Amino acid sequence: MIRKFGILIFSIIFSGLPFTTLSGQSTAMHWNEMLLQAIREDLARPTVHARNLWHTSAAMYDVWTMFQHEAKPYLIGNTVQGFDSPFTGYPINQTQSQEDLEIAIDYAAYLMLRERFQYSLNSPSNNDRINAYMEKRGYDMSTYDEKFTNYASGDPRALGTHIAWEYLRFGLQDGSNELSFYRNMYYTPVNRPIDPSKYGNPAITDPNRWQTVDLPITIDQSGNKIESAPPFLGAEWGNVLPFSLENPTVYTRDSQAYKVYYDPGPPPYLDTIADTDGSKIYKWGFSLVAIWSSHCDPADSVIWDISPAAQGNLNAFPETFEETQAFYDLEGGDPGEGHPINPATQEPYAPNLVKRGNYVRALAEFWADGPDSETPPGHWFTIVNEVNQHPELIKKFGGKGDVLDSLEWDIKTYFVLGANMHDAAINTWALKGYYDYVRPVSAIRYMADRGQSSDPNLPNYHVAGLPLIPGYIELILEGDTLAGKENEYLHHVKLNTWKGPDYIKDPTVDMAGVGWVRAGNWWPYQRPTFVTPNFSGYLSGHSTYSRSAAEILTAVTGDAFFPGGMGTFLVEQDTFLVFEEGPSETFELKWATYRDASDQTSLSRIWGGIHPPMDDIPGRKIGIKIAEQVFTKAEAYFYDDVDGDGLYSYEDCDDNDPKRPLKKRCKKQKRLK
């Protein structure tokens, strides 16, 4: 699949093309861009690629620490969660320290990308790209020796190679089951696959458990053709070694153990016998997904102001069911208060009026897997790379201390964000694996098969059916064209919603539109070759990834706002959408803060038909906790509190010490924790 994407702008333009089109980047950013491209070309595996982003970032960071005075390596020379990585020290030639540093980073990142993507569907493309970069840097790759790890010789190539091998060795025992291509060891689904081309969902036996999708052709979000009825991705990812998560609780289900860290408790379950409180929340939440799908129509008359003046700046999450219902209004929209002033310009944010049907469809596609299918963890790295190149960004870590050079800034930013995305993946997929919760396409069709649950005096009543909501969810009555030629669907439930891929022959020119469909035929706003991710719903990975990333960017930059007070993404008329034709106008997505962008991500998954509200808010809350824990631990690797006064300090050092070559670190400084 060729993804049609817009332009991400933070005062400079992101071309969406390989790194060679960009200038002024550090070698760390070059490698991160190449890693993101390798992810785009690989299978869409957010857990695996969060781990790849973390391990590659950490390897570059550990290389960088060998040339610094104060910063401490994460893995090299340490024992990390039982894994021992001995190190005898690296002799540094002070006069060539910066050049040697970049050489060592190049060799470490090169080996990480070559090994981690050796079995990728597009490994030749990755190899060509990284080899071309190494040759452009002046390295003779015809003499490359992956076994050259004698770092004691002082050769930076050997240092980088050694550090990469240590991370690769660490990855073989970190619980990811990399040697078996990350397959599950014991998880077994309880439901047979759903075939969405057929009416209803007769295959499901437990409406509270996950169900894979069986399609004639399945194409993942990166455009790769994969096996039909794909298995649950990462059901046992809670077993993977984290960076900062601690003290997991071990739960048992189906006689198998599942590690869980931050646990918000179980989602609401549907009771097929009684109308319990949990059932009411379940039916409301999944019905809301179908209702919000009715917003995917640019032909309606609803116009929204999507500027930072009118949305964003959300200051509280709902705590009760009643608050949650108000938070996710039937008409949709961002419940934030908006921002009156751009703090960078001291001017009000200008209105940004857009048709709701264009806006919500763009959100559903933009936030699904990134502008160019780099998966949600990679999407936030593309945002970071734009932020890091913004001319108004002041590169003071945490907004304090010295201005850092681009390489140090990128290295530290990637280390923190990579660790964060990895821990977010572990915590989220630990919950996904244990709770094994149902997706909207399964739940909505299951309830449609039962009937309506609003009134036992009306036809087709079942306590586990869909609730009737006038204008959105109704019964099919006599004379309705949906009743069928023989009235075979009379008194079935119908939905006023996005009509689905059956109405689209060519997505470049056709648009399904919104209208009444039989509820048993409901589709999420997705491609017919994808339908829904191949892992369970609860919690939302997008909500957790995005909120934790927003918190990390806020902490790293020391500012909640994008540089210049606003980040934007250009959505071009009739070229951006992939699922169907559109949008019918050109407009910009705009965010004042990183948190605003994150909150928009979460809402996009409801419009896309992928998550109900109960998957969302717990993910946002846990994302905040993970980010706080990751940042605190990561910062302690960067700076020392030598005298224990609560301030990070740079130690005094001897400028003549060959192991302390960077004189800018040989002075006493302090920065607030």
Fold and architecture overview:
By secondary structure, the chain is an alpha+beta fold. It has a domain at 639-673. The chain is 35% helix and 9% strand. The protein contains 14 helices and 16 strands. The protein has helices at 27-41, 46-65, 97-116, 123-136, 156-171, 277-293, 321-327, 356-369, 375-388, 406-435, 440-450, 541-557, 594-607, 613-638; strands at residues 7-9, 79-80, 83-84, 218-219, 225-226, 249-253, 256-260, 303-305, 353-355, 473-475, 493-498, 514-518, 567-571, 587-591, 647-650, 669-672. The chain has a 3-stranded antiparallel beta sheet with strand order 1-13-14. A 3-stranded antiparallel beta sheet has the order 10-11-12. The chain has a two-stranded antiparallel sheet with strand order 2-3. A hairpin with a 2-residue loop joins β6 (249-253) and β7. α2 (46-65) packs antiparallel against α5, α12 runs antiparallel to α13 (594-607) and α12 (541-557) packs parallel to α14 (613-638). The protein is globular and about 85 Å long. The protein starts with 6 loop residues before the first strand and ends with a strand. 52% of the residues are buried. Mean pLDDT is 91; it is low at 1-22 and 650-673.
Keywords:
673 residues, alpha+beta, 16 strands, 14 helices, globular
Short characterization:
With 673 residues, the protein is of the alpha+beta class. The protein has helices at 27-41, 46-65, 97-116, 123-136, 156-171, 277-293, 321-327, 356-369, 375-388, 406-435, 440-450, 541-557, 594-607, 613-638, and strands at residues 7-9, 79-80, 83-84, 218-219, 225-226, 249-253, 256-260, 303-305, 353-355, 473-475, 493-498, 514-518, 567-571, 587-591, 647-650, 669-672.
